[in-house]
Design a protein that fits this description.
alpha/beta, Rossmann fold, 9 helices, eight-stranded mixed sheet
Amino acid sequence: MLDVGSGTGALTRVLRAEAAGDVVAVDADPKLLDHVEGPTVVGDAFRLPFPEDTFDLVICQALLINLPEPVDALREFARVSRDGVAVIEPDNGSVTVDSTVGGESALAGQAREHYLAGVDTDVTLGSDAESILADAGLDSIEVTRYDHDRTISPPYDEADVESARRKASGDGLATDRETMLDGGLTADGYDSLRQRWRQMGRDVIEQMAERTYERTETVPFYVAVGQV
């Protein structure tokens, strides 16, 4: 199997533990591959450094949402596969947040809407996985949806505390400022959103101090498998 865009190897390790056969990790960033045990290969998803029909299965996870031409990448996956291509991709436009802090769900939705409007790739394509695989020439396509829940609840760990700190400081929102402005949000609109975001963060910290804060973010993922 070939794991394209493996990053630091999260999916690669799962495949090696759960599936029979060898799993090769490929990524364009050699520094990320430093975190993955071999075999690893530095390579571009649009120009994979392998001959035709090298692998039984070519797979990626949360890669296509970051590519400007995902169908072209899938055609390249099909070129080096002699059997199947599988993708695991989210629909980031359908993420939901359930929180004990009033207003967090609505603010998260507003921030996501502005961010998505400014992104130049299709970060919602998970729900269109079937049509994208079909456009790449794959057959016998099967799609399954599953919802991934990210939950924060007592006892809180360091990552939970850091997330709350970034909300209260506005640092987390600030990293996406330019993307939001590219999506049509005005500077005044961003400042207003950030002010409300920081207050929400302070409310989160207050509830965390009382051990009452709970938050669940649900991200829909689509697993699509097609035959070459």
